[in-house]
Amino acid sequence: MKITVIGAGPGGYEAAIMAAKLGAEVTVIEKKEVGGTCLNIGCIPTKTLLASADVLTTSAEAEKFGVFNDHTTANLEQIIERKDKLVSGLVKGIEFLFESNGVNLVRGVGKLIDAKTVEVARSDGEALTLVSDKILLATGSVPICPEMFCYDGEKVITSTEALSLKTLPKSMIVVGGGVIGCELGQFFSRLGTKVTIVEMADQILSAEDESVAKQLLRQLKREKIKVLTANGVTDVKVQDSGVSVTLKKGERLEAEIMLLSIGRSSFSKGLNLEEVGIKVDSRGRIEVDESLETSVKGIYAVGDLINTPYLAHVASKEGIIAAENMLGKNKTGVHKAIPRCVYTDPQVAAVGITEKEAQQRGIVYKVGSFDFRSLGKAQIIAKIQGQVKIIVDEKDVIIGASIIGPEATDLLAELTMAVHLGLTAEVLGEVIHPHPTLSEAIMEALHDVHGKSINKVSTRF
Ligand SMILES: Cc1cc2nc3c(=O)[nH]c(=O)nc-3n(C[C@H](O)[C@H](O)[C@H](O)COP(=O)(O)OP(=O)(O)OC[C@H]3O[C@@H](n4cnc5c(N)ncnc54)[C@H](O)[C@@H]3O)c2cc1C
Questions:
Q1: Which of 159, 217, 222, 256 is the most exposed place for a label (fewest CB within 10 A)?
Q2: Segment 171-221, tens digit of pLDDT
Q3: Residues 226 and 312 both lie in one domain
Q4: Is there a single domain that holds both residue 257 and residue 170?
């Protein structure tokens, strides 16, 4: 079986390796670096920068631990250098995985000719035609930059440029208080930039639990980040000195740089979808069935290109499932439990539905919660802010969970498994959790669903 994959982000590269492991002859076409958005300008670079900010914050608080570290400063250029080195090492790692699994990598731009044929404008100027049994489209997404924002890549930038700035801006307006806006806003603020976040919705992280978003908002404000919710940008002027912005509520803001983080859109430009007969929705996302096959038999699509959450772990999972299906398996149900993570400090992580969604859907539910403040491990590491909140349905099945606090993104794995497997709070609560660890907060929140948390400070006295 011959398979051609267009795009080597997490969706495309994991699909390619899985298909090769299952015995297919695989060619991947990539126009830039392997690893896609996630590895080159997304997940890995942002989290590498945030790791530096974490070290800076911890160093600044060293005295709390009886450790003295008098001259803590950060150097953006060196932080970016570390990120670039780390990314290029991981890029080489994927190239090595391709080689060792016998995946053929072609550098260039791929375009569909028909259900079996892909034409490649190779980076070396040569043209190549590939005929295969199945094709996987995994060309990802690009930042949304409406014209009114005057994007120029210098004063008005997206996350792509923000991750490679060489000098620290004195001030920054961040448009969009979603995951990327909050993460990068907090990063630049911690390094010394005066940051203002403008968010259209009533809360930052609009998809997340209200109380969790409020706690993060309090922290951002504590760090002197100005956050304007229920507001929007109506006019942008780019001048020599920086950017001047008018807001919906009349306020004017000025800053050296404006970071646009208002979302991403699927990228299918030049793929020839219409000519081949591949259906897309009104937002340009390719329509797929449960097996991830498009409206054209034999052509599959995954990741940011389709109508599922724009997340690397979703793209990877879809890539693996698409590869298996292309090779004759019949796998469905990819999206049972999708973890959502925000790497701010404190971190935010959630799976399943929020309390508000449960109310809107008329679900009979119960909540269990536990504050990190009451936990030995949180006190030890001096990260006591935040809580675990678990939502169960009337049968005690865990249908949602939100965590704000230390290592929330790692802690979420247990609750993602619970939602995926349909576990009850009682069953998961019976599991012994190691002491002293942050995971005990989950156990206590599970017990709290039934009013049996031993260590929760009770208000009934
Ligand atoms: C700043 C930022 C932070 C993020 N942080 C996280 C995070 O912490 N966790 C998380 O889960 N997700 C995160 N994401 C989202 C994540 O990066 C994406 O969901 C993921 O990369 C999507 O994978 P993909 O394979 O669908 O597409 P992509 O990773 O976008 O890869 C698509 C690839 O296709 C190539 N390509 C496009 N067209 C062609 C063509 N015609 N021919 C050849 N090659 C082509 C592109 O060059 C690219 O390499 C973040 C995104 C950003 C921007």
A1: 222
A2: 999 999 999 999 999 999 999 999 999 999 999 999 999 999 999 999 999
A3: no
A4: yes
356 and 435 inside one domain: yes
Separation between Cα atoms, residue 152 and residue 126, nearest integer Å: 32
The string of pLDDT tens digits covering residues 149-167 is 999 999 999 999 999 999 9
CA angle 136, 138, 141 (to 5 degrees): 160
Active-site residue list: 435
Do residues 137 and 159 both lie within one domain?
no
Nearest CA to ligand 1 atom 7: 43
From ligand 1's centre to the CA of 275, what distance in Å?
25
Question: Are 246 and 305 found together in one domain?
Answer: no
Best of 17, 29, 31, 38 to mutate for ligand 1, by most ligand atoms within 8 A of CB? 38
Q: Is the CB of 268 under 6 A from ligand 1?
A: no
In terms of domains, do 270 and 257 share one?
A: no
How far is ligand 1, taken at its centre, from the CA of residue 36, in Å? 5
Mutate to test the pocket of ligand 1, among 37, 118, 410 (most ligand atoms within 8 A of CB): 37
Domain limits for position 154: 147-262
424 is a domain residue:
yes
Enter the pTM of the model: 0.97
Q: What is the DSSP letter of 132?
A: -
Q: 376: Cβ below 6 Å to ligand 1?
A: no
Tens of pLDDT, residues 266-310: 999 999 999 999 999 999 999 999 999 999 999 999 999 999 999
Q: Could you give the number of structural domains in the chain? A: 3
Q: Is residue 331 part of a domain?
A: no
